[in-house]
Amino acid sequence: MVWGVLEEMRIRSLGVIDDAVVELSPGFTAVTGETGAGKTMVVTSLGLLLGGRADPALVRIGAASAVVEGRISVPAGAPAALRAEEAGAELDEGVLLVSRTISAEGRSRAHLGGRSVPVGLLAELADELVAVHGQTDQQGLLKPARQRGALDRYAGDAVAVPLAAYGEAYKRLRAVTAELEEITTRARERAQEADLLRFGLAEIEAVTPRAGEDVELAAEAERLGHAEALASAAALAHGALAGNPEDPEAVDATTLVAGAGRALEAVRSHDAALASLADRMGEISILLGDVAGELAGYADDLDADPLRLAAVEERRAALTQLTRKYGRAGEGMASVLAWAEESAARLGELDGDDDRVEELTAERDRLRDELSVLAQGLTDARTETADRFAGAVTAELASLAMPHARVSFDISQTEDPEGVEVGGRRVAYGPSGADEVELLLAPHPGAPPRPIAKGASGGELSRVMLAVEVVFAGTDPVPTYLFDEVDAGVGGKAAVEIGRRLAKLAKTAQVVVVTHLPQVAAFADRQLLVEKTNDGSVTRSGVTVLEGEERVRELSRMLAGQEDSETARAHAEELLATARADG
To answer: β-pairing, 5-14 with 65-73?
Structure first.
C-alpha cells in the first residue's frame, strides 16, 4: 500500500532559486539541468520539508526569508495522516500541506495542515513518507554500524525482537556495573562515614536522652535554684490567706471574706442583685481556701536539695553537648533524636554494602550469562538473514550491469576476556550485541570479497546502494524515494540499467532522481529541467516539464553538450524508445 505521494513543491528565495514550482510525477521523476543550475536545491527543499536542519546561508541574498511549501497526498488512515491529525493538522481532500520558513537570521518555522508545529514533527513524518539518498548516504553505507543497521532492518522481527530483549538486559547490566563500581571505589569513604556515625550513636546511647527532657530539666533547675525564695513567698502568701497560728491577732483574707459573706447572706433574700453578689462571694471564699491549701502543700513538697540541683545541671550539660554536636539550633533534643534515627538508617545502608556487593555481583554475573545467550541469538539471526539479504542484493546487482558481482556479509566478533561468551569465546559487546558486520563485494569472478569501503569504486558503490534500497522496497517500503546523483561515477550500459531499475522501483513507489545521466533520465515518467535566467537565478518559469521535442533536446544536451547534434538527437530518441519499450 502506498502511504503518500509528493505532488508539488514551491520554492522561494532558496539558494539560486528565486521562485519556482516543482511538479512531480506519482511514478518516476527525473530532475536535470546544467551543473550549478540548482538541481540540488530540489533535494535541499524536500529535506527542509521533512525536518532537515535549517541553514540561514540557504536564504537567497537580499531576501528576508526562504520558504518551501509542499503538497503531499496522504490517504485517510495512513500512519502519517493519523500522526498529523493528532497534532491538529487538517487534510484537504486527502492532501497534506507542509511548509517550512527560514529567516535570514536563522529562525525556522514549520506548518503542517494549517497548524504551526515543531520541526521535529516533520522529521517524524519523514520516516513514514520519504527515503532520501545522496552522496553522503553512499559514504554512510561504508560505515560498519550502518551496514549492521541495514542487515537488522532487512531481518525485521527476527532480529528486532531479540535485539529489544538484549537492549534491556544491556542497560540493566550497565546500571548494575556502575553501582558496583561506585560502592567498591568509595569503600574507604564509606568506612570512614560509618565510623563517624557509630561514634555519634554511641555518644547519644551513653546519655540516653528522652524527647523533651531538656525542657523539663531547664524548668527543674530554675525551681531548685530559687527554692528558698519560693518557699518564703509561699509561706507569706499562705499566712495572708489562711492566717498565722503564731499570731492570733493577725487579720487574714479568709476571715475577712468569710465575714463579708455572712453579712450578705443575712440580707440576700431582699434583693436578687445582692443575692448574686453573695453567691460570688461564696465562690471567692472557696477559691481562697483551695489556693491556701495548695500553697501549704507546695511549701511542704518544695525540694531544696543542693545535690539534686547539681545532678540536674550535670545532666543538662550532657544534653547540651549532644545538641551542640548533633542537633540543630533552636530545635533542642528533638533534632538530636532525629539525627540518631537518620544515622542509624544510614549506618544500616553502609553496613549492608557487603551484602549489596554480593547481590550486585550475582546479578552482574546472571546478566552476563543472559547477554551471552541473547548475543548468540542475535548472531544466529543475523547470520541467517545475511545469506538471504546478500543473495537479494546480488540478484539486483545483476540487473544493474554487474552480472558477476557477488555481495556477502562478514559477521565477526572481537575477543575480550571481560566480554560475553559467544560461540565459546569471550568477546566484546555493546548496545547492539557482539557482532561486527561488514558488507563485502567481489565485483567479478576470481576477485576476493573485500569490504566495500576498500574495494568498491564510486560507480559500484552507487549501484550497491541502489540495489540495497530496491531490496528494501520489497520488504520495508516507503512511499517516496529521492536519489541525489545516485548514478555518480556510472556511465554507459550501467547507467541504462540504473535507469531501468529506478523505473521498476517507481511502479510501486514514487521515485525522484536528480541526475546528470541521459540514460537514467530517459526512463523517467516525467522530466523536469532546471534552468537559470541571465541574472543567475531560477524563476517560476525556470523549472519546466519537458515533453516531446523539448525532452529530446535536453537529452541531446546531456549526451553531447549540443542540443542540435543530429547524432545526439538520434541517440536520445533511441534511449526514449528503449525506455518506452521496457515500460
So the answer is: antiparallel
Report helix, strand or coil for 436.
strand
Collapsing DSSP states into helix, strand and coil, what is residue 564?
coil
**The pLDDT value given to residue 225:** 77
- Per-domain boundaries in the chain: 193-350
Asked whether residue 139 carries a pLDDT value surpassing 60, the answer given is no
Q: In which element (H, E) is residue 444 found? A: none
pLDDT of residue 140 exceeding 60, the answer is no
Angle, alpha carbons 366-371-377 (nearest 5°): 135
Q: Please say whether the beta carbons of 514 and 483 come within 8 A.
A: yes
Q: Amino acid identity, residue 156?
A: G
Separation of alpha carbons 177 and 200, rounded Å: 33
Q: Which three cell numbers stand for residue 478?
A: 516507503
What's the whole-number average pLDDT of the chain? 83
Residues 6+ apart with CB under 8 A from 110: 51, 98, 99, 100, 101, 116, 117, 118, 119, 121, 122
Q: C-alpha cell of 482?
A: 529521492
Evaluate the CA torsion angle 235, 236, 241, 242 in order and state its sign: positive
Residue pair 510/479 in contact by the 8 Å Cβ criterion: yes
Beta bridge partners of 68: 11, 100
**How far, in Å, CA of 445 to CA of 481, rounded?**
32
Distances (CA, A) of 517 to 431, 458, 580: 42, 15, 17
Local structure of 417: helix, strand or coil = strand
Query: How far does Cα 92 stand from its chain's mean position?
Result: 34
The sheet carrying 406-412 orders its strands as 406-412, 436-442, 450-451
> Residues 319, 217: contact at Cβ < 8 Å?
yes
pTM (predicted TM-score)? 0.58
Residue 166's pLDDT is: 94
Q: Cα-flanking dihedrals φ and ψ of residue 243, to 5°? A: 95, 160
Q: What is the pLDDT of residues 170-207, one digit of tens each?
A: 999 999 999 888 877 776 777 788 888 889 889 988 88
pLDDT at 536: 60
CA angle in degrees (0–180, nearest 5) for 364-365-369 = 115
Cα(124)–Cα(83) distance, rounded to whole angstroms? 9
Determine the pLDDT at residue 386. Answer: 93
The set of cell numbers assigned to 476 is 520495508
